[in-house]
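Bumping with the actual sequence this time:
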Amino acid sequence: MEKWPMIRTVVVVGALLLGAGAVMAQQDVAVQQQNQMKTQGKSMYGVIGKTVKGETPYDQAAIDTAITELEASVVKIPTVFTPNPKEDVVNASFGSSQKIWQNKADFDSKVPPVLKAIADVKGKIKDTASLKVAFDSIQAKCTDCHETYRVKLK
C-alpha cells in the first residue's frame, strides 16, 4: 500500500475543511452585520414607526428606550462593518453593497449625521406629532446610507 495517495487524500480533505471554515466565517460576519441592522430596524420601525402609523399606542417609555437603543446601535456601525464578508446572508432580502469596503471612509461618514439626528430629538419627543418629526429626521439620514450601501437581494 502506497502512502502518497493517503497523504494526498488527507491534504485534499484538509483544504476542503479550511475552505468550508472560511465560508462559515464569512457567513458569521454577514449575519453579525445583518443583526446590527435588524436591531436598529426593531427600534426604528418596530417601535417608533408603528407608533407614528398609529399601529401601536403612544408609550413614552417605549419610545425613550427605542431612541436610546437606536443611538447605542448606530454608533457601532463602522466597527461592525469593518470586516468584509464578501457574501450575503443566505435567504436575506437585503445585503451590504461591496461599495462599503471600496469607500469605507464615505460609509463611515454617514454615521455622525444619523447620531446627530438622534441627539437632536432625544428628550424632545413628547407625543405622536413630535415623534413623527423625529422619525422623519432620523429616517432621512438612514436613507442617505441605504441608497448607496444597501442592496435589495430579492
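The C-alpha cells above came from a reply further down the thread. Strands lie at 94-96, 150-152.
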